[in-house]
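During the reporting period the student researcher (J.K.) took over the structure-prediction task from the postdoctoral fellow and processed the backlog of single-chain submissions. One of the processed entries is reproduced below for the supervisory committee.
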Amino acid sequence: MASRRRMLLKVIILGDSGVGKTSLMNQYVNRKFSNQYKATIGAHFLTKEVQFEDRLFTLQIWDTAGQERFQSLGVAFYRGADCCVLVHDVNVMKSFDNLNNWREEFLIQASPSDPENFPFVVLGNKVSEKKAKAWCASKGNIPYFETSAKEGFNVDSAFECITKNALKNEPGEEIVLANCFISILFFSMMKATFLKPLMLLAEDGLRDLQAVNVKRVIVRWGFIYQNAETAAVDFSFLYVKVAGSDD
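J.K. obtained the following structure tokens:
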């Protein structure tokens, strides 16, 4: 397959475990919602090709682990992000209170060139709207949306705002997104501490990734809990025919 030129926008979604980060991403990209909860370990991303402001680009959306014991696996994916989405559950005050911790951790780990003006967007997915908006205002008027991944309410509007903010942070040049090979770092969930590394993907190879040929298919075997957890890095892709696009 020949390489294609696309504008790549990388978006990171952060928030406590169970607030609906994966569900929001799946609703936006796949128009699907599942009631079965599977906690993410490490990171997982979906891509969506979108026509916006007369430009064609690939929106690369990264979902990361919310559980504290697995957060260290996800921070390697923060770098190179164009926008960070902070998600909380409107029915769980603690998830809202932790937004500032997620924001600060992102700025430390991602090391953006202009941390004071780096674009964030806050989504309340299931605290008080008034309190959330006040917090966003105190952090430089961060855009705030209340969404429902289950019903699809406000999801498209939120991601349109995310896209606009990511574009503001994008240098503007097109990059070549070539196919590459990747293997997956796998955790055996029979014992959460038992690590089975197959291959580690270089950190600097995560930014310019569009098409992936997985060398080995790993079946999620051995899960003994209903809340099965995504292992390390899990990849899915969606290529969308957008009105006005020739590809």
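The committee noted the following: The chain has one domain: 4-177.
J.K. will present the remaining backlog at the next meeting.
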